[in-house]
Design brief:
The chain is α+β, with helices and mostly antiparallel strands. Helix content is 66%, strand content 15%. It has helices at residues 3-15, 37-40, 44-78, and strands spanning 19-24, 30-35. It is elongated, with a radius of gyration of 22 Å.
């Protein structure tokens, strides 16, 4: 992601009340971003997805292997 795109995304998050931007008058200038109370509420969905992924990874890997094996068998019978 380019610096310009990152800046645009952070400004949009700030505008939506999800992050707070603090400018420190130093040389060179320093800017910090932190989640607001509203922004913190967004932590739940990614954490739930991470938890689901951890609990079901074996099943996902089994499904991938079965799918790949089926594709290989179909390719061999067609060729």
């Amino acid at each position: 992601m380019s610096e310009k795109m990152l800046t645009q995304r952070l400004r949009a998050l700030e505008r939506n009340g999800l992050v707070r931007r603090t400018i420190h008058p130093e040389i060179p200038p320093r800017v910090e971003y932190e989640l607001t109370e509203l922004g913190v509420t967004l932590r739940g969905p990614p954490l739930a997805l991470t938890d689901w992924s951890t609990r079901h990874m074996d099943e996902v890997l089994e499904a991938r292997a079965a799918y790949d094996q089926g594709k290989e068998a179909a390719h061999e019978s067609a060729g």
